[in-house]
Amino acid sequence: MIQLTTAVVAPTGWVYPLAVLAVLATAACRPHRDPALMQLLSDQFWLTYVGVAVIFVVNVAVIGLSALLDRRPEPVFPRWFAWLNFVLAIAFFPGVFVYVATDGPFAWDGVFTVVVPSVVFVVWKIAMIVLLLRAVRSEEREALGERELPVPVAG
User: Fold this and answer.
1) For the segment 75-86, what is each residue's pLDDT rounded down to a tens digit?
2) Which of 126, 121, 132, 140 is nearest to 10 (CA)?
3) Do the beta carbons of residue 52 and residue 13 sit within 8 Å?
4) What's the predicted TM-score (pTM) here?
5) How far apart are CA 51 and CA 84, in angstroms?
6) CA–CA separation, 151 vs 61, rounded Å?
């Protein structure tokens, strides 16, 4: 249920910054506007865009916890993936500091709020896709009674 809740809440958290981006793009169409206004809109976008990533801390931590609690002989996710999820949760957490840091590694453009989470997210996303495809294949094998699945033909 926690996973479902974060799956519903997280996308709504991204809608607001994207709406602000549209406002920022609209303001940029008039370059003669006050630079302070442009800075305000830019700050509003980046603070919400980077700061909302903290919701994924709960999301990926629950995936990690579920992988650790899966005691079946052939678990859906391997144990190392649980620990990868915990590392990702820790990597996403500094995003919450964008609201109090105006410069440095915890600011909206800092290494701990943008760079580290972005790199770790790409690693996690690739691992998640590979492991989910493997889990689906395993489930299909179980459903067919452990028979070997036919290899799909490209074309």
Assistant:
1) 889 999 999 999
2) 121
3) yes
4) 0.73
5) 21
6) 34
DSSP string over 38-107: HHHHHHHHHHHHHHGGGHHHHHHHHHHHHHHH--SSS-SS-HHHHHHHHHHHHHHGGGGGGGT-SSSTTS
**3-class SS at 23?**
helix
pLDDT reported for residue 128: 92
Q: Which has the closest alpha carbon to 85: 116, 115, 127? A: 127
Is the Cβ–Cβ distance between 1 and 65 less than 8 Å?
Answer: no
Mean pLDDT, the chain, whole residue set: 83
| Element spanning 130, H or E | helix 116-143
| 8 Å CB contact between 92 and 56 | yes
Q: What single-letter amino acid sits at 44? A: Q
Confidence of residue 154 (pLDDT cuts 50, 70, 90): low
Nearby residues of 62 by Cβ (< 8 Å), 6 or more positions away: 2, 3, 6
Residue 77 Cα distances to 33, 80, 130, 155, angstroms:
52, 8, 10, 31
